[in-house]
TrEMBL record, chain A:
The chain crosses the membrane at residues 21-40, 72-90, 102-123, 135-158, 179-197, 239-260. Belongs to the binding-protein-dependent transport system permease family. This is Amino acid ABC transporter permease. It is found in: Cell membrane. GO terms for cellular component: ATP-binding cassette (ABC) transporter complex. It comes from the Bacteria. Residues 66-257 form the ABC transmembrane type-1 domain. It comes from Kribbella albertanoniae.
UniProtKB/TrEMBL annotation, chain B:
Residues 16-205 form the ABC transmembrane type-1 domain. NCBIfam families: HEQRo_perm_3TM. It comes from Kribbella albertanoniae. The chain crosses the membrane at residues 20-40, 61-80, 86-105, 126-144, 184-204. It is a multi-pass membrane protein. Keywords: Amino-acid transport, Cell membrane, Membrane, Transmembrane, Transmembrane helix, Transport. The lineage of its organism: Bacteria, Bacillati, Actinomycetota, Actinomycetes, Propionibacteriales. This is Amino acid ABC transporter permease. It comes from the Bacteria.
Automatic annotation (TrEMBL), chain C:
The keyword Signal applies. This is Glutamate ABC transporter substrate-binding protein. It comes from the Bacteria. PROSITE patterns: PROKAR_LIPOPROTEIN (PS51257). Residues 68-294 form the Solute-binding protein family 3/N-terminal domain. It holds the Pfam family SBP_bac_3. InterPro entries: Bact_solute-bind_prot3 (IPR051455), Solute-binding_3/MltF_N (IPR001638).
Length: 290, 215, 306
């Protein structure tokens, strides 16, 4: 743990730490004050720039945008989890003809930028008349990309369960299906949870790319509001509001994850199993040692 | 199929060259900034830890497009001059990616056995020395696989710059539309380009993963 | 503990939201600024024709079964294709779209508008995402290979929008060398700047919308925004103390209505509608209500039927 990186400070160390602490707080406060002053002197708090938020039509648009964001994220999350589960299962299959294609599919979709993936659906739809809406282009793009990443997370999570567990399970005569379902998955899931939640946060944020293919999500509405000259191009106010909404939504997800994790840990204590990784650890460590 | 690439070679060449430049410069800068932030997050000074945590939680929960928009349109409104769209783009990518790098480095630090830093402290090293001489070099091996994931994400994230006056690979479809070329073939070539760039990173990740698995 | 804080915070936010939820329809009177000019006024009144049929048009048959029109427009061009904070649309292009709808026998108030970025127009028309497109869409041979055009219903010219005090580009396009120029990604005007090398490649900025360019202009990040004068005048009219159109057009842009390719029957029908509007004074009326407010007079152009 990080606390072993430094000694418990002595009397002089305590003073030094307290002084440095104060300096940092002052520096941060100074930076914040400078920024607010800068915003103020450049007229970013003028009523004109914020007036749009009072319109009921604008509030409605923002709400619709938010709902569109949530709709796309929600559906894509479910589909991505399914996609991830199926392809993770295929990747740990004993049959080479299942394993190898699944690996290629997962690696391919992990390598294509999401924007390009959405463009694919958008333009293919137009060329071949698939009748897709921008909404489905966004959802499919998000599903393929995040599903592939989730497949990787699931696979790595299962691989990370100590070897003895698997060997013992096989030794008592369980079939592969049973080993994975009854022994490996239950142990892997709490270790994977932080990575899964991080990926959900990524998915939620990536809905914002939808504006490029004309999906009217939150950022699309925000860009439109910011682009009104009559209100002095209120980009800063609208972006601040939008950022707060996104940060709030994503934090909510993290809180949910922490809650779920706490529950599984409490349950675990009773059964005496080792505690799972904490949320803050190994977030981006999709592969390797989750 | 091939003519789409050869006829518009100038676009593809310039586009991917800009992608590579954006990627490399942002990767180096976010590695530096991310490591500094990670040091903040494990430091003995609570306010520094707060700065690190606040930064990471804010940036990781903000869409990259918004970070770009703040730097391109927001900063201009406050009369904060960024030298050029290129550097504004590098700035946006760095600010965003360093939050992820920070988390990778920090969890890497946590993988180093406590005995190592205890021993280092016993011989009288300071926090800074413990971190830079003992912990980070050992954490490096655990950091490489997740760090390559972060950099793969960064490489792909450069496409977002297409909406912000940077004619990198993600912007090729816009110009190809103007030239009346087939969009799907264009997208396939762009995908191939990204595969060529990403595969080495994936191999690096695999290789590092195997090494840690053996250790 | 931390969670309880967050829940409390959310509660407060929700309360604040409900408190402000009863938003206004119009900005408060005397609120200062020029907000009044932002709201779209009453649209032009069109008689909806009845019993219209366009024989031999697959697109029209599709519209007929649907019962209303889906029209591609722009939303961020004041006085041309604009959506105000109330969600109402107005401008010259919008009125043209409404006029065509009425004369095709569909209530113009029931048009479903779709905002299509410049770079996606051909694909949106070709894919049937929209029935037609009215939004500063220049007729070019290259585009004619992908879509077909009725019109032109307006002739514009590429010009420069500059900060009011800046006189360094009054000579027009020849003065652009060394200046930072901005336009919409993938648009004809920026392609012309590149082709004629009016300024250095490193001085060219391209953003998704003209609004973003104009914002950069006001913030002195670019020196000029270039596109058709019709669009630029719309902005200049909105902020006349800050912005100015140079007034030396260096191209001829014929705005057409983008239609599905090879639907000659529908194209002829729309051309007939445009022709009628030019002779019966409708064209002039909607021009004066929109772009005409900028002070420059306009006349309907001759149609180019094919």
């Amino acid at each position: 743990m990080s606390t072993v990186l430094y000694e418990v400070p002595g009397p002089r160390g305590k003073v030094r730490n307290r002084v440095s602490n104060l300096l940092v707080v002052l520096a941060v406060a100074g930076a914040a004050a400078w920024l607010i002053n800068r915003l103020y002197t450049h007229g970013q708090f003028e009523g004109r720039l914020w007036r749009q938020f009072q319109y009921s039509a604008i509030q409605e648009q923002l709400l619709t945008g938010l709902l569109n964001t949530l709709r796309a994220a929600g559906l894509a999350a479910v589909l991505a989890l399914l996609f991830g589960a199926v392809f993770a299962a295929a990747r740990i299959s004993d049959h080479k003809w299942v394993r190898v294609p699944a690996t290629y599919v997962v690696e391919l979709f992990r390598a294509i930028p999401l924007l390009i993936l959405m463009f694919f659906f958008y333009y293919a739809n137009i060329q071949f008349h698939w009748g897709l809406t921008p909404f489905s282009a966004v959802v499919f793009g998000l599903t393929l990309y995040n599903g592939s990443v989730l497949a990787e997370i699931f696979r790595a999570g299962i691989a990370a369960v100590p070897k003895g567990q698997r060997e013992a399970a096989y030794a008592i005569g369980l079939r592969k299906n049973q080993v994975v379902r009854l022994v490996l998955l239950p142990q892997a899931i709490s270790a994977m949870l932080p990575a899964i939640v991080s990926q959900m946060v990524v998915l939620l944020k990536d809905t914002a790319l939808g504006f490029i293919i004309t999906y009217a999500e939150l950022l699309y509405v925000a860009k439109q509001m910011g682009g009104r000259l009559t209100y002095g191009f209120p980009y800063i106010p609208t972006y601040i509001v939008t950022a707060i909404v996104y940060i709030g939504l994503c934090s909510l997800l993290s809180v949910l994850a922490r809650y779920l994790e706490g529950r599984s840990r409490r349950r675990r204590k009773i059964t005496g199993a080792p505690p799972p990784l904490t949320l803050d650890e190994g977030d981006a460590s999709v592969a390797g040692r989750s | 199929m091939l003519s789409v690439l050869t006829d518009n070679w100038d676009l593809f060449r310039d586009g991917f060259w800009l992608t590579i430049r954006l990627f490399l410069v942002s990767a180096v800068l976010s590695l530096v900034l991310g490591t500094i932030l990670a040091a903040f997050r494990v430091s003995p000074i609570p306010a520094l830890r707060g700065v690190g945590t606040g930064y990471v939680n804010t940036l990781r929960n903000t869409p990259l497009t918004l970070v770009f928009a703040f730097l391109f349109f927001g900063a201009a409104k406050m009369d904060l001059a960024l030298p050029s769209p290129y550097w504004a783009g590098v700035g946006a990518l760095t600010i965003y990616t360093s939050a992820f790098v920070c988390e990778v480095v920090r969890s890497g630090v946590n993988t180093v056995s406590p005995g190592q830093s205890e021993a280092a402290r016993a011989v009288g090293m300071t926090f800074f020395q413990v971190l830079t001489l003992i912990v980070l070099p050992q954490a490096f091996r655990a950091i490489v696989p997740p760090l390559s994931s972060v950099f793969i994400a960064l490489l792909k994230n450069t496409t977002i710059a297409a909406g912000f006056s940077l004619a990198e690979a993600g912007a090729i479809p816009f110009s190809m539309s103007e030239r009346g070329e087939n969009q799907l073939l264009t997208l396939i070539w762009i995908t191939i380009g990204f595969l060529i760039l990403i595969v080495p990173l994936m191999f690096l990740q695999r290789w590092a993963e195997r090494r840690t698995a053996v250790a | 503990m931390r969670m309880r804080h967050l829940v409390a915070g959310l509660g407060v936010a929700a309360l604040a939201l409900t408190a402000t939820a009863c938003g206004k329809e119009e900005p408060a009177a005397g609120g200062g600024g020029n907000a009044a000019s932002d709201s779209c006024g009453t649209p032009h009144k069109f008689e909806t024709a009845s019993g219209v049929d366009v024989a031999g048009s697959p697109a029209f048959a599709k519209i007929k079964t649907r019962g209303n029109l889906i029209v591609g427009v722009k939303a961020d061009q004041p006085n041309l294709g604009y959506k105000d904070a109330d969600g109402k649309r107005c401008g010259f292009d919008i009125e043209v779209a409404r006029m065509v709808s009425a004369n095709l026998g569909f209530d113009p108030d029931k048009i479903e508008y779709k905002e299509i970025p410049s770079a996606n127009r051909e694909t949106a028309i070709g894919g049937g995402e929209i029935d037609y497109y009215v939004g500063t869409y220049s007729i070019t041979d290259k585009r004619k290979a992908l879509v077909s055009f009725a019109g032109p219903y307006f002739v514009a010219g590429q010009d420069l929008l500059v900060n009011k005090a800046d006189t360094s580009m009054d000579a027009g396009k020849t003065a652009l060398k060394g200046k930072k120029v901005c336009s919409a990604t993938g648009s004809t005007p920026i392609q012309r700047v590149k082709d004629e090398q009016l300024t250095e490649a490193s001085n060219i900025s391209e953003f998704k919308t003209y609004s973003e360019c104009v914002s950069q202009l006001l913030d002195k990040k670019v020196d000029a925004v270039t596109t058709d004068d019709a669009i630029l005048k719309g902005y200049a009219a909105t902020a006349p103390d800050q912005l100015r159109v140079v007034g030396k057009p260096f191209s001829t842009e014929k705005y057409g209505i983008g239609l599905p390719k090879d639907d000659k029957a529908l194209r002829d029908q729309v051309n007939t509608i445009l022709e009628k509007s030019a002779t019966d004074g409708t064209w002039k009326a909607i021009y004066d209500e929109t772009l005409g407010k900028s002070g420059s007079p306009g006349t309907p152009p001759a149609l180019e039927k094919y």
